[in-house]
From TrEMBL:
The chain crosses the membrane at residues 40-60, 72-92, 98-120, 181-198, 204-225, 263-282. InterPro entries: TM_pro_TauE-like (IPR002781), TSUP/Inactive_protease-like (IPR051598). It holds the Pfam family TauE. Keywords: Cell membrane, Membrane, Transmembrane, Transmembrane helix. It is found in: Cell membrane; Membrane. Belongs to the 4-toluene sulfonate uptake permease (TSUP) (TC 2.A.102) family. Its main location: membrane. It is a multi-pass membrane protein. The lineage of its organism: Bacteria, Bacillati, Actinomycetota, Actinomycetes, Micromonosporales. This is Probable membrane transporter protein. GO terms for cellular component: plasma membrane.
Length: 317
């Protein structure tokens, strides 16, 4: 019972992050399941079954708040489903000894990407309103779906930053569209796992616990996406993913690092993680101050209350 409650809380927290950031539900949930000793394929299958419900509720909530571009959903979601089915089939036929460290590497890479991306770059903007082409979204969906199924997460970390980097879709619609299209990915991945490992190897109680927590959080996250600073949240979530999967990798049969080496790695990660969060907060506050200054200067120019050269020279003395 305690484990189910913990899973429900993890599902709630992961969906809050995913719904407001456009990523990390699968990565966060799968990381926890692996940490408690779940088979990699079963962990990914459990999470994707839960995601069928959470992505449905999340998509409806994002649609109600006007956060969805349906053209983007279809162009990336269908190829994503194909990639997810293929990824689930591949993972189902890999031995646990190989799959566990391999999944840890995939999740660690995604975590590093999320941490670095949001710490140093934040959310890029530019070229808003220009259409996103199918030749860009289709390959992105295929790769994202495959990584998502094999890594237990990755649809958001692959799709969200790529679309944001294009600067053609505003952040809230990018997040809403990625979350909504993940419904197709979750269905295809779940089908692939059921065919690959059999339904008897999936813990439906765990999937239900993750689902309940995610369903509660989904509408809250869709509302928060307009208010929460994604830069800070991205740095925080990225650090959790990096730390947890570094632990899994160092303890795997591939490396089996001694305690001293593992603790040294943990110390470095903790320090870098704390620095990333502090830097993200400072940059976020700086951006807010810069935006306020620009607005003030624009308002002053509109009212003609702009200091002349003499006033500027006096102010600089």
């Amino acid at each position: 019972m305690r484990k189910l409650l913990l899973l429900a809380l993890v599902g709630l927290g992961a969906q809050l992050v995913d719904g407001s950031l456009g990523m990390a539900y699968g990565v966060t949930s799968t990381t926890l399941l692996l940490a408690i000793g779940t088979n990699p394929a079963a962990a990914s299958a459990t999470v994707h079954l839960a995601e069928i419900g959470t992505t449905l509720v999340s998509g409806i909530a994002h649609w109600r708040f006007g956060n969805v571009d349906w053209k983007v959903v279809l162009k990336i979601g269908v190829p994503g489903a194909i990639g997810a089915f293929a990824g689930a089939t591949v993972l189902s036929n890999i031995s646990t000894e190989v799959a566990a460290p391999l999944m840890a590497i995939i999740l660690l890479t995604l975590g590093l990407y999320v941490l670095i991306r949001f710490t140093f770059q934040g959310l890029p903007k530019g070229q808003l309103g220009k259409p996103l082409r199918k030749r860009f979204l289709a390959p992105l969906g295929l790769v994202g779906g495959f990584v998502d199924a094999t890594g237990g997460g990755g649809w958001g970390p692959v799709g969200t930053p790529a679309i944001l980097a294009s600067g053609r879709l505003e952040p809230r619609k990018t997040i809403g569209s990625i979350d909504t299209s993940e419904f197709l990915v979750a269905i295809a991945a779940s089908l692939g796992f059921i065919l690959g490992i059999g339904s008897e190897n999936i813990d439906y109680g765990w999937a239900l616990a993750l689902l309940l927590g995610g369903v509660i959080a989904a509408p809250i996250a869709a509302w928060l996406v307009r208010h929460i600073p994604p830069r800070v949240l991205g740095a925080a979530v990225g650090g959790v993913i990096v730390l947890t999967n570094t632990r899994s990798l160092l303890r795997s049969d591939w490396i089996d690092a001694p305690d001293g080496v593992r603790y040294a790695f943990y110390g470095v990660i903790y320090a870098a993680w704390a620095a990333a969060i502090v830097y993200s907060v400072l940059q976020y506050r700086k951006n807010i101050a810069d935006d306020q200054r620009i607005i003030a200067e624009a308002e002053a120019a509109a009212t003609g209350d702009v200091p002349d050269d003499k006033d500027k020279a006096t102010a600089n003395v």
